[in-house]
Design brief:
Number of strands: 12
Largest sheet: 8 strands, mixed
Helix content: 40-55%
Strand order of the largest sheet: 5-12-11-6-10-7-9-8
Order of helices and strands: EEHEEHHHHHHHHEHEHEHHEEHHEHEHE
Length: 616
């Protein structure tokens, strides 16, 4: 079937035949209008899954020191939960009554079968007595006057024998039933037979309870179900116990009968001298008595079973029916959710801030520098999104321009003790590549040039030069520079100095070709010649050096520096490497060193551009 293809049309409330059975769909009047034109997905859950869901949500709590239990059910619909509990109790009572009726009906059927047999035996004995008396012309009074003394004793003895025979007959019938195939998994007739052994009645009650439990389980499962197999084993065990109890009781009664028969033989011997007709009639009467007692006993038990089946009551009694009064939402618990949300709203931000601060190993503010470094902090350059490499101009009043002006002012304070009128050398370095030393040094050279100073911008990062990305050099990356001057004695400083072609120009001395041995080149005398020339012809020499933690190039020429600016980039530089500039400062390996924070955020505390409008 294609997606969204219409199969058939139906109306609400009508029966729809499906592969899973007949269903009826009824709408909710509250939401019906909002659902018009929408696709509604119907999910059909198997009955056993729904029953298991309700079973898990049903709570049964026993009241302490009583036979009372309290039932409760959690469900989104109060009325449905109430109806389920009421119907559950009602079905339980019905099942209890039905089980009792089954046991009573089985007992009545068993008694009726026995009555048919005993009724035939009793009729046969009565016919025999009538025939005997008729043939001999005897009456009951003729028999009563003979051997009165022994007759009384014999009567008592015969009654006891009859009673025991009755019990023995009933025991044998019950034992045969239990051992027969019909009684293997069927209810054993319960009749208060007056057995002297109370364990027989108890065992029968337990046996019937297991039979009923097995019948209930077989309605929803097979005989291979582990629970059914376990019950079958218990029934087999109880069957053996019941058979043993009946055998034991039978042996006990047989012992009593043997004793009574011995006495009966004695009484019989005493009356043997009586007329033969009296003895014969007594034998017939004795058999009549046994049959009559057994017949009357079974009639009584049948009546009891019939009465019991009609007045059967459930074991459970409902004190209070299920009600939604006093019910309250158990899920979601608004108070708990609000309290949890309030708690998380207070704690979670602190945990996030604390964890992020704990895991953050990057320099995130000027305060991070002040905690670790003892050297001066010359300033902060704010983070900008401009794609221009040289961002400073003559009339620029932006925050970045004001930051470089503050940096230019702070340079004067740091170099106040240097006895030079011209040729002040400022090294710009960093720990690793990417912290912005070339960007800072180039814009610092432009800032000094704007103030009217003659500035030279020298590149000594011979391993990874970036001047060709910032300035329009004649031959780009291959333009002659410092390395060419060092290796070629015929070149003069003027041959490698280029003019910055825009306003507020300064001179540029690129690093030149990338050599295989930059450290050895920087140790040549021609380097000193280059610095001496620049110091004689310029007010400031801004030197873009190599990162100090990767190579020793910067330390080889550190003697020429009057001021060393160490660049640390916010959210980029690692706090753990701040020990590198701190060691340089304490060991004086870089002269007059100060730290500059690059790409600083607003939290540094500086508000550049005070009193000015930003000029694009």
């Amino acid at each position: 079937m294609k997606k969204k293809q219409k199969v058939s049309n139906h109306s609400f409330g009508n029966t729809i035949s499906t592969s899973i059975g007949d269903i009826i769909i009824t709408p909710s009047m509250d939401t019906m209008n909002a659902s018009i034109g929408k696709i509604i997905k119907i999910v059909v859950t198997p009955v056993k899954f729904v029953a298991e869901s309700y079973r898990n949500r049903l709570s049964i709590i026993s009241v302490k020191n009583s036979a009372i239990v309290r039932l409760s059910l959690n469900d989104p619909v109060k009325e449905k939960a109430k109806d389920i509990i009421n119907n559950l109790v009602e079905e339980y009572n019905k099942a209890t009554i039905e089980n009792k009726k089954q046991a009573s009906a089985r007992t009545a059927d068993f008694i009726n079968d026995r009555l048919e047999l005993i009724s035939g035996d009793l009729t046969q004995v009565d016919d025999q007595a009538a025939t005997y008396q008729s043939s001999r012309g005897l009456t009951s009074s003729d028999v009563a006057v003979q051997a009165q003394q022994f007759s009384d004793l014999d009567t008592k003895n015969s009654q006891e024998i009859a009673r025991l025979n009755t019990q023995l007959y009933f025991i044998e019938s019950m034992r045969k039933f239990v051992l027969s195939q019909d009684g293997k998994f069927d209810l054993v007739p319960q009749s208060n037979s007056g057995f002297s052994d109370p364990t027989v009645a108890t065992t029968i009650s337990r046996y019937n309870g297991l039979i009923l439990q097995r019948q209930r389980l077989l309605k929803t499962s097979s005989i291979k179900n582990p629970v059914v197999v376990n019950i079958d084993q218990q029934i087999g065990g109880l069957r053996q116990v019941l058979t043993g109890s009946l055998n034991s009781l039978k042996n006990s009664i047989n012992g009593q009968l043997r004793s009574l028969n011995t006495q009966n033989q004695y009484f019989g011997g005493q009356i043997y001298s009586a007329p033969t007709r009296q003895k014969d009639i007594r034998a017939i009467e004795r058999e009549q008595t046994i049959k009559e007692q057994l017949y009357l006993y079974l009639l009584q038990k049948r009546e009891e079973a019939e009465i019991k089946s009609h007045i059967t009551l459930s074991n459970a009694r409902v004190i209070d029916k299920a009600s939604t009064l006093g019910s309250y939402p158990v899920s979601p618990n608004k108070k708990t959710i609000y309290a949890g949300a309030f708690f998380l709203g207070l704690i979670l931000p602190f945990l996030i801030i604390y964890t992020s601060d704990l895991l953050n190993v990057k320099v995130s503010s000027r305060e991070d520098l002040e905690k670790v470094l003892s050297m001066p902090i010359i300033g902060s350059i704010p983070k900008v999104k401009s794609k221009n490499k040289i961002m400073i101009s003559q009339n620029d009043r932006s925050g970045i321009a004001e930051a470089f002006r503050i940096l230019r002012t702070n340079l004067d304070f740091l170099m106040a003790g240097i006895n030079k009128t011209k040729g002040k050398v400022i090294f710009v370095t960093s720990t690793i590549s990417g912290e912005g030393k070339t960007l800072i040094s180039s814009n610092l050279a432009k800032t000094l040039a704007i103030s009217g100073k003659k500035v030279a911008f020298l590149g000594t990062d011979l391993r990874d030069p970036k001047f060709h990305k910032f300035f329009d050099l004649p031959n780009g990356k291959d333009s002659k520079g410092l390395t060419n001057f060092i290796m070629n004695d015929e070149l003069t400083p003027e041959d490698i100095i280029y003019k910055y072609k825009k306003e507020d120009a300064f001179d540029i001395v690129p690093s030149g070709a990338i050599p295989p041995n930059p450290a050895e080149l920087l140790m040549q005398e021609r380097v000193n010649v280059m610095f001496k020339y620049l110091e004689e012809h310029y007010d400031y020499i801004i030197v873009d050096t190599a990162p100090v933690s990767l190579v020793t190039d910067t330390l080889l020429i550190a003697k020429h520096a009057d001021l060393s600016i160490y660049i640390v980039r916010e959210n980029y530089s690692d706090k753990r490497v701040l020990q590198v500039p701190e060691n340089f400062y304490r060991e004086k390996r870089l002269p007059n060193i100060a730290v500059l924070l690059n790409a600083a955020g607003n939290k540094t505390g500086y508000n550049y551009g005070y009193g000015y409008g930003k000029k694009n």
